[in-house]
Amino acid sequence: MRKLSKVAPKWWDYTTLDEKIQKDAAKLTIKDMLQLKRKGFSVKFYDSREEFFSAEALEYITSWKQATPSKPAGICGPIGPTEQLPIVARMVNAMGLKLKNAHFWGMDEWYLDGKELPISHPLSFARADMELMINRIDKKLRMPKENIESYNKARCVVMQGGQGETKHWAFNDPVKREGRFTEEPPSPAEFRKLTTRVVELHPMTLMQNARTSGGGIVSNIPSKAVSVGAAETWKAEKVSIWHPGWHDNSFGTRLTALMISKKIPDSSVPMSLLADHPNVEFHILTPNFLSCAVEMH
Question: Half-sphere exposure (CA, 13 Å, Cβ side) for 50?
Answer without folding.
Answer: 0
